[in-house]
Records
---
Amino acid sequence: MSKILVACAVGVNTSEIIASKLRDIFDEEGISATIETSKINDVSGMQDEFDVIVSLADIEGINKPLVNGVGLLTGINAEEIVNKIKEYL
Amino acid sequence: MSKDIEVFLLEESNFSTQSEMFESVSETLFKKGMVNKNFYNAITKRESMFPTGLKGKKRNIAIPHADPEFVNKSGYIVVKNKTPLKFKNMGNKEEEIEVKLIVFILSSTAEGHMDLLQKTLSLTTIDAIPAGAKLTNFFERSNNE
């Protein structure tokens, strides 16, 4: 199953909001994926087991596809962002 | 639940820079005992590492926050500034956006201010921002839903 890592500064609030939005969208569309959350600072050490990283800020030292997820908070270009994530699953 | 949350409004404020606003808000909160004396440094450092300006559909907002260790009591401080203040865009640190509505999200625990955050995010999409008691009520209500 595809795995998505959602990262924000502390790894709880904003990342959880985005993760739950993605879970809702994927549920509705029948896409199965595991979605986890983490701190931005922990991503580089965890990235290997994930297919795509959704982050609220730039992260250095990432070799996995990285998608900026801020639009999922505000709803701006949200659909585009979701489509981009799906490309990597 | 709502009694655990303090809401302070600073409406019609006239700050000219982000740092002036951070300093003033930090001092007010410290005097009220809601944060400790390191809050200003914490919030400034956090904002420079992880900016919180958000481009919204209806309006831009900023949601500065600090780690729970600097916060004694959970709540919101809502600043409605008369003129726009510059914030870096959360999604793109290179970009500055103009923000008149700033919501400080104070959380004294490491978890569980998702509801506070979600309510705050809705301010980017609603038509009009309530004022005064209605604005306080807007925030207090979120914790009972």
Note: The interface with chain B takes residues 8-10, 12-14, 16-17, 40, 56-58, 68, 70-71, 73-76 of chain A (CB under 8 Å).
---
Amino acid sequence: VSEVERKGVGAQVAAADPKSSVWVGANAGTGKTHVLTDRITRLLLSDAKPGRVLCLTFTKAAAAEMATRLSERLGAWAVATDADLQAALRDLLGKPYEGDLKRARRLFATCLEFPGGLKIQTIHAFCQSILARFPLEAGLNPNQRVMDDRTRAELLLEARDRLLVGGGNESRLVEATDKIAALVDEEGFTRVMEELSGNRAKFETLHRAHGTTAAIGAALRKKLEIPTGAREETIIADARRCDEAALRPAAEVLLDGSKTDRRIGQIVVDWLDNPEARIRTFRDYAGAYLVNDLGKPRDKMMTKGLAEKHPGAHEVLKREQDRIAAAVERVRAVRLAEATEALLVLAGGLSECYSSLKRRRGLLDYDDLILATLDLLRAEGGANWVLYKLDGGLDHILVDEAQDTSAEQWAVVEALASEFFSGGGGTNKNHARTLFVVGDEKQSIYSFQGADPEGFERMRKIFARRLRDIGDRLVEVELALSFRSAPTIVRAVDAVFARTKLTGDGRSVPHRSNRDGQASMLELWPPVKKSDTPSDSPWDAPLDRIDSRSPESRVAERIADTIKGWIDDGETLDSRARPVRPGDILILVRKRGQFAARAIRALKERNIPVSGADRMVLTEQLVIRDLMAAADFALLPEDDLTLAALLKSPIVGLTEDQLFAVAHDRGGNGLWRSLRSAARTDATLAAAETQLKAIMARADRMPPYEFFEELLVADRARERLIAWLGPDAADPLDEFLGLALSFERDRAPSLQSFLHWLRAGSSEIKRDMERGGGEVRVMTVHGSKGLQGDIVILADACRERRAGTKPQLVWDLEDAENPCVYWPVARENEVGPVAERRAVMDDMAEREYRRLLYVAMTRARDRLYVTGWHGGENYKAGCWYDLIASALEPNLADVETPQGPARRLAAPQTGKPDGAENIGAASEIPSLPAWALTPAPAEPKPAIPLIPSTPEKEPPILGPFDRDDPSRFKRGRLIHRLLQSLPDMAMELQEEAALRLLSAHGVSTTEARSWIAETLGIIRHPDLSALFGRGSLAEAPIVGIVEDRVISARIDRLVVLDDRVMIVDYKTNRPPPRDIDDIPSVYRRQMESYRKLVHGLYPDKRIEEFLIWTDGPRFVALSENAGRG
Amino acid sequence: LIQDDRHLAWAEHLDLRLKRQKTEPPAPRPPLTARPTELPVTAVETWIRDPYALYAERILNLRALEPIDADPGAADRGSIVHDVLEDFIAVHPDTLPDDAERVLIDIGKRRFERFETRPAVRAFWWPRFRRVAKWFVEAEVERRAEGWRPVAMEKTGAATIKGLVHDFTIKAKADRIDRGPDGLAVIDYKTGQVPSLKQVESGLGPQLTLEAHIAEQGGFDGLDAEPVTELLYVKLSGGREPGTLQGIADNEKDAGILIAEAVAGLTRLVVRYQSADMPYLAIPRVQFLTNRRSDYDHLARVKAWEDEA
């Protein structure tokens, strides 16, 4: 074990020490999850109660993974040999375990048996469980449900409409709406409202600080230094008064200058000449002093020569310029204030409407979970009560991915841990309460979901102080040894981030690799430029399409070609000492955009296994539009354009020319009608017509899923769609069918409503990409959190930070006394403090952009490839590509790859491969069996099996006066039992066993002897001896289809012989028929169907059927020659 | 549970049973007799940007149905504003009433009634319309003072290009034509995007210039041939700047050059498509692609072939 590794492992062991509260800063790949699992295990080992441990993870997937790891480990311990268990414990504790091994073995059962199990969950799930247990205390409807994003968006829209209808009577709201309507349209309004509702906690902070909307407005004006009552008009009116006596001569000087001078001079003179129009023309006048809409003052007010000649006049103009610039700035501040005030009024109204809708329907959104829990915990005694009811309290809290925790989530953790710091907890070492937080500010990439990257540092200080106050201490551990990335990757990461601030305090821990000697490489591929578009005249229509392959596409193709090359040539992954496999490869992008779809398609086209998109909007997929066109047509055949699209889709498959023949010059006819009449003379069209009619007929009677399934499978549309659209179409198809199924479960399954539902929401499919199977994974950096790949390809490294939409709202919450929000609407209105805050936000966004790169680079184990595309001549300074290229520049070597040039930083394999695996033989793909291509036979009509011994027609019942014998039924039943069991016994034991059975049922010995004799007479009858002989079966169940009916039966006795099969059925309760012709027809039919069933199984054998009347007992052979084989 | 990988492999086999087919971008070459010999000027822009869309709309006669429950969109707002202004000018072609703004707003009220049930429309469009009305009256007063008088509102007209294999007619419905001291002004109201001067010059925004050509030919009903001295877009957004006058040309010479270029360009376009092997390609030049979603991209199966090598 190397010194480095010893240290790294040592840090891990220290971090897992269950006696102390620990704060862990963990670089990427340093075994954070490992430490967390170790710590939980050690807590349990030192007798922590499972119910008193709470571990908060960032995602449900992480929680599930953690739980799995734990139960795997504890499960293994339960059955490990003493030596193995000792070794495992030594690794875990860093020293030999001195306790009782039995205790370690029992942990598995302890956790299993604990009600509810270990609390390893997301903070949202935890809060939800709290609220579900304390609805009254939290002031909630006990049946509340958490709504999904789509429901939330629908509810917000509904709230908006209610507000706008109801608000018609409230002048404040009307005024605010009018004001906002002038600034944005209804979509713009919805967008800003969404942003606001996404920042609800901030909005509430604002309200808590100021009380009312009006007070927020006043605070806003104070910040912007606008006098109360100032409006745009009053400011301009004030600005009207100028130093005319000085200004006029100065303006006249301009009139003698250059063209520009003269133009400006004229504006000034005009304005001075028309005092009554000064307000109206103020904007033009300001244009004389300011350059553009941003209101930047001109550098100089006169051309150089003129200014030198008339310095006095220039001075006057410059003073006027300052005055005007200040007035314009004030106007903008007022606009900003008014817009923000109007927005706050509407936002207040909207949030009331939204809350009341939620309350009425018993719905909660994700923010509610956190905020309501926080209120509950903060209430007087709330935390104590809740914790007391929760298994008597929490002793240990663990927080994973702490860098992505939001301020409100931290507040929940703080409230939960409040007991820890009240003294007593830390001093009693036998009942220690500990807090454990692990995170990495460098990996905080979820600020758009409210993550508070600087909170990690802030909370560390707070908790450290709290612990110090009670005489305890917070142990701080840095994990810097990467068990993931090989040296070249680690080196590159350090080089890139040595010069770049990632965190608030700019502190950075140098990385070390635990994988010295493993081959590793970083390669930069030249970014792809957008191809130049020729600037021909719009009027000159081209004869051919201009090759317009997008740069995304070309990047996707280079990547796919490279991977194909590796697979085909058996490129070796040195550290694993085996060829590269698709599952080793992770393709990362900052945004999915067009690229993800292109890359998946390019890989599928090359037969490289690739997992589908982690997100897609179904209704935008061509294959889904084809399916929807089929449904649309069925519902509304008059929709010509949709029918045409369906005709051209692979579902029907007409060519452009065939479409022309049907569609062109069809008079006033609809396309459907035209198609039908053309079908009379054209075989292809006739086939299309038949197919379309079938589709229409199905739409009438089938729910959505069956409709599409039938179209895809029975019509074979699936194969054609995939042949024409490529193998990547299979994925959306399956998702679509899944959606149809789940729609049918929850709603009235009509095709029409399904289509409407699809269109109304954008139906974005999201999937978790877990550790890959054998497939290349394409995903966003955000989605790759916690994952890794031997080979990582960073595909869109030239994308600029600004590529995303900028938040419209500027928050200023630093000033706790006077927090504010600004809605500038336009960039020009970002005056004074707003511009400062915006700069801070930009700075934070820039840091997050780089942190995202940190996360992306550290996903790689052995190799990192970096490429991208851009629209300009060169990639932009500061983009990821630039950050990497410029940091590594002097060390990069030019190389030529089969797909073009590259620059490379690499280290060869010098050590023993640390990830060598056995190479399993590639499994052979079985070829398609013949039956797969023939349609399955139609299902038999009645799907419920018939049971033949339930006769269709009852035979006559024994009359009450006919030979009345109360023991008749008893006798029949008992003989049935004897017939069933005796044949399986040795012959010499039969009699005695039978006697025992009968006397146990109270049959006199004499009577018993006579019954037994008769029964054995049958069993030993020469005709039947085979039936009751070796290998015969009692009560043989049989199921099959006879004449389109499913028959399920139990044959009382059956034997399969070489040449024949014998079957028998016992009849108990009827007087036995005197001869064969007296046998009721029902019994004959029953035996007939048995015969057919058995015949189906043994078509080559003769079947012999018997009936045995236990009432006799006597037997009848039904088939000719029966018993004479 | 049965663990059997064969089933997955079989399912995949089934999917891939048919040979992979390549979708070619559509390039229909209908016979010359099927090709249009007259078009509205608004279709000319489609012709330039996406000839296949023109083919589908005008040759195959396929048009998208408006969804029944669609939210009123930008087009509805545009048509309301057009209607209100048309009503207003029809009543006051010469002098404006003193309470012009109130009159305009009253007309607007009637036209907006049908959106009574759509709160978002009322809440946002109505205040915007009021701002438009206010601005419009001010601008109109000024315009009339400069000597302009509206002589045509929403009037249809046509002009024919002769001397080709087949004559070709362009038709138009001009939002508004004014007569001024020296000639005519062709005006278009826009509630959305306004084409830039550059777009008009290059031919990407040929509506005003071709309408002006029709006017100069005397093609509008009841309007004699007269030189056009002004090409003007009026942008009516109702936003912070409720309206803007966006002049494209303000004298006979500039207007004349633009009109002549447009007619020459259109003639070239017509001649090209009068050749039987000229195909109607789908978005052949991506640089002319607009953000607007075309009704015909599904029919053209754009996603199946775009971006393919």
Note: The longest strand of chain B covers residues 149-161.
---
Amino acid sequence: MSRRGWLLFAAPAAALFLAFWLLPMAGLALAGARPVDGQSAYLAVLGSPRYWRSLFNTAALSLGATLATLLVALPVGRFLAWRRDFPGRRALVAMLMFPLAFPGVVVGFLIILLAGRQGVLGTVTQWLTGEPWVFAYSMGGLFLGYLYFSLPRAIGVVSAAAEQIDASLLEAARTLGAPAWRRFLDIELPALAPALIGAGAMSFATSMGAFGTVFTLATRIDVLPMTIYNEFTNYANIPVAAALSIVLGLVTWVVLYVAHSLAGSRAGAGA
Amino acid sequence: MSTLHSKADMRLGLIATLAVAAFLVGPVILSILAGLTRNYFVGLSSGLTLRWVEQVWTLYADTIWRSIAVAVSTLIVCTLVGVPAAWVLTLYRGRAARALEELLTLPVAVPGLASALALIVSWGTLPGFRSSTAFIVIGHVLFTLPFMVRATRASMAGAGLAALDEAAATLGASRMRRFLTVVAPNAAPGILTGALTVLTLSIGEFNLTWLLHTPLTKTLPVGLADSYASMRLEVASAYTLVFLLMLMPLLVGLQWLAKAAARPRGGDAPNDDTP
């Protein structure tokens, strides 16, 4: 009970959060209910194929990038977990984790250097085939960008989980005659599932809300963050921008929440 | 030694790892080279130069200083607000505390664009506030606070700090005194990790800042976006290089702290690790 008095110490954080996030968010939700052309902006958004397409594009692209991220992170994470000691490992891991700190704009620029008009891929393909291969300013470039900023975190999470796998289980399975693919499917994959779900959700959520990368690559790409930005700056259509933001925020939050409880119950079942 | 994993598995892992490393690091190297080359079109044969970096300095020095100021202000607010909150969340594990912790992480889960719009809709009309750097700092605090709280809490939980604090209380020390002389010093490693994370995130924050900034309050990432859109590739690359150089010490510090935390407590004896 003497602890009671400590509660006041959390008051500044709570007040700051309330005043500058929770109440403004509620205000934004209300702003989305303001009428546009005679109906609430939410209804206008939900009834318009244009916004649905934007949402679909965003979700499909994010999902694709997430699956690709997990597919690539899995062998890399396992490799780093098995090989804990080789010359240059520390430098390699540092290199893999370095891009974690890059903002979306920088990632976009790096993709341009890779696949843009003056990019390496363009130069190499021009030299090989006479036709430069340039795809940075389209959905393909965006996909690569999402992969770029999702991979480091996913690799970190997967390799940490793979390090925790009890080698004696694998040993026992091998003694019992299980081939490598059975050991992977029956032992490794279930053990890695919570990590994969967590990393996947993180990658999906980040991709859904990523704005800097699209902004650098091409303002014409039709994904939801760009649509929100255009509604807000170019058309000063605050109700629609607000309604779309609330929809995007809800979708992202729900995905993270579901993944969190899913991974949590999995981990609980495994223990 | 580990015949547990098939040779094919190992080979696939090695190839994937090298490919990913090339994909992640390759463009960074290209960017560094482009920022230092006289003419990127012609290639390295045109010679190396610091001309572009100088040009970045004359064009964008104000954004660099502003980003540092914003990051430091964000850190001060996060420390003053986040460390006490972390202590409360360490002591209370009830439902209300859990809820507060979940709530505080919402600005990270929800896209920055939405948070920024909410801030503008509610506070944007306040004269003087909208056009000040403080407006950006508020956005950054919301986004970075959860990281400060989490890192600080991690080092408060393990140290048997609650018992220490109770001992100090029986000796008659006031709450504020206990917090400043017992709790905070013992959580120093976590606070330091949180501080470096906050600085790193703030210096690179774009999603919120792009909507919150005004022409007079441009930060480094805002300037970067501007240079990507309107400057020649060499200048944009040199600017990116400056950004990476600012990030470097923070990241090295974080890695060093993580390694120190992995060692058992009190392992301060001189070790073979060089920072």
Note: Chain A has twelve helices and two strands.
---
Amino acid sequence: MEKHSLINRSALDYSELDYGSLATSLMREAARVGLWSEQESERLENGLLAELAEQISAITHGESSSIPDSLADQLMDGIGYCVDYALRAAPSPEAALELLKSKTARQLYADGKNLLDSHAKASEALLSRVRATRTDTVNSGYRIMLDETLPGLIRAWKASPYPRDFAVITEYPLAKDFTLDGIEGVHERLSALALENRFCARFSAGLDALLDDYALQNRVSAAESYVNLFTLALHGLIFCRLLGRDGMSLDRDELLELEARLLPLGSEQRELLVTRAAELLLADCAFENERLERYVTDAANDLSTMLNAVGGRVTSIAVTSRGDRPVFVSPDGAGLDNDAFAVVADELRLTDSPDGKAQILCDELRSLDDLCDMLSEGCIGEDDFDTVFAALGDETCALLLSRVGSDVPPESVALPIPRDDAPEWQPYLTAYLSELDEKRLAKILELGSAFADER
Amino acid sequence: MSGFLSLFSGKDNLAARRNAELLLDSNDYTRQYGLALTHADALSVIESRDTAIRDYGRVELGVGMVDRLILSFCDSPYLNSENYAETVCSLTELFYYMKGETLDRLTDDELLQLMKRYFDGECGGSLELLAERELETVARNIRAYGSLDVPDESETTTADYSGEYPVEEDDSWRSIRL
């Protein structure tokens, strides 16, 4: 039902209507403007009481004339919710009032109940389909929603007699923001998930890599990422098409190239480009499913809005592919704030294996300053330094070497000797490097010297 | 209370008058025992019922079980025209109290039969004994054991005076018989 219309010719004041409790607020408002009589109230109330009496009789098998008021409240709330639901299906408050006048309470209750039951039945069928077509992913939010939350919500709905306050909260974000609660909200989310699954099934091959890149970029694990897989895939696919190629993963250079093209454009031009890319994608995919095509088009429109909001700076919203290249720290790499630094340091301390520590350093640190500080934090054991340096790679070791201060004048091809008060990682680094073969060491020294000169 | 259930508050007076009228129909049957309610008595009984229902957190639609209570108790030797209305009011209140105390495990008819049996039997027409001794015991048993009576414990094995339980031994297991 439209909550507001441009021209309100009705005597009803729509602002007085409470859509969470439509029947009672509508009766109150209609009575205020003289459209609802005392007799009509009595007729409706008697009808509702008769329905309640019937439900009490069914629950007690006719063997008890009274029930605890908490149970009566629950039953009556369910009846009221069904009546409200039937009224909300009317196109306008006036039409809802007409329904209240022309139908008995029992008919309204049955109408609402049938509508809600149809959502529940459809939800059960959809749940089976959605689980059967699940996307193969490590993301735990997606798995929990599919295996626990949605089945749990359907079970809870069936266990309660049409509960009014039935919040639907899931651990996995869908591409659209869904605000409906109750079984209708469950149905709505399942319908969307069915479409998203169908879309993702076409691109499942690159989805995990995309999720890994997202996780790395946002400093979370792929399992714990709170991100929608459909949106990740769609954005990647559209960006690739904007560059005139297939695929859904873009590296930093490609994103910069795309950004250079999008920045000078106006909002409408960007919108047009994204819409065209989405159309091309849909034509290539040939889903032959109108609802899915509409869903994709809507998501593409959302992407246009998002792109325009950041002025075409696609690098700020896109996932950058790491590809097979190792991740380097660099002198001007993004540093961690104090809290994030402390979290990484704690993580390092809690990790036993040197390989695990090396992996954390590679994944989490981008700034050379951060790396030097972290190595000085006492998070790496004496015996672990060699493994860590080996994992960091020669280029990073050369960068670290450029930070080793020495009192001894450097000879042409020789390792610097750290000062006595140097952080403990420096002597370990020189010890590690001294064990390398001459050719490799020479290359690192050359690189280190170049980096030091740059400083 | 939900928005809908609250709609019906404020209709009490009208409903009470209507229910009192219905209650007076029971006089046709109880007159054979020399018992009859006046209109004021009937209103008083309905009022007691409404108060009990409200106080014990229950909901009942229509005249409820009061007419059945009257038909069950009217042949009691302990009721007479002088204490009839007052006793019916007390029994009505006791009935709703017991419904809650027995966790709604007893049907209306089971509870009425039980009350009548104790009232005419062990309690000798005493409402105090009925409420504080017999029905309290019933409520306690239902809450503790889920049944009207305490389960027979003669067959359960208890520890002997030394605190030892009988032990059975076989080749591989040692088990305690409880």
Note: The CA atoms of residues 177 and 438 of chain A lie 60 Å apart.
